[in-house]
């Protein structure tokens, strides 16, 4: 045990023993360089250098393009391109399959090769269709005759019966101005033309719902409102429409701006019409412009 202990002590002493490395000129024996070190220090130095070299080489491989030159190490960009190409090829294959199916179906339809399901064309024998009454009943026939006999879309104008039903209405004047063209049913002018200031707002004459808000080449921007008791008001030749179909309008609310749109106009004005039960009536008999 003593000898073994002495051997370990001598080995540690050798590791800690200092040596001197001298570089001398061979001709003049002049000392050019000297280094004092111990075996233990030399081992630590070599180990540190080795660790640093390993870390440098690993960093170069992991974080520089040099890794591409290592066999078996794929480029990240190339892998992304391969994945993208794979997805695109799958999509193209699916699209081609669907296109082939569509083409085959069209060819079968053109050639008359249509497979039908016999169960769908099989008649239902649970009911006796021969005994069904397909004709109209007496009540249905009477109702049909009553509806067809009504003149719902008459273009007559100014009858007394049409005036009496709206005598209690409180109309709001849509535009204050000068009436340039009077109501004349014989000449098929089923309204009046009112000339007003530029950019003046057109207002609804009664509460109601917009049933038409469109443009045509003849009347330009036109808006039509359905009121209660089957009364309809029409406003034509506007420059701008402020409401759309389905909007609920209160009396006196702005619905458009006076304009000169459409072919049937010679200047900025409002063409205003009132229709009651399908009959055109004179607006001047119910309001002052």
Give the radius of gyration.
51 Å
Task: Classify the secondary structure makeup into a structural class.
Answer: alpha+beta
Shape descriptor reads: elongated
Report the count of strand segments: 12
Q: What is the straight-line distance between the termini? A: 133 Å
Low-confidence stretches: 151-162
In the CATH classification, which architecture of the domain at 160-285 applies?
Distorted Sandwich
- CATH topology heading of the domain at 160-285: Glucose Permease (Domain IIA)
Query: Approximately how much helix is present in the residues?
Result: 25-40%
Largest sheet: 10 strands, antiparallel
What would you note in describing this structure?
With 289 residues, the chain is α+β, with helices and mostly antiparallel strands. Among the domains are: 2-61, no CATH class; 160-285, Glucose Permease (Domain IIA) (Distorted Sandwich). Helices cover 34% and strands 24% of the residues. It is built from 6 helices and 12 strands. The strands form 2 sheets. Strands 3, 4, 5, 6, 7, 8, 9, 10, 11 and 12 form a 10-stranded antiparallel sheet that branches. The protein has a two-stranded antiparallel sheet with strand order 1-2. A hairpin with a 6-residue loop joins strand 1 (19-24) and strand 2. The longest helix has 36 residues, at 76-111. The radius of gyration is 51 Å and the shape is elongated. It starts with a helix and ends in an 8-residue tail after the last strand. The model is unreliable at 151-162 (pLDDT under 50).
